[in-house]
Amino acid sequence: MSRMRFNSLNEFQDYLEKQGDKTMEFRAIPISGEPEEFYYDGHKKVVTRNEDGKMFDNVEDFLCYTFQCDEEGYTHTEHVDVELKIQ
Question: 25, 28, 37, 60: which could join 85 in a potential S-S bond, CB 3.0 to 4.6 Å?
Answer without folding.
Answer: 25
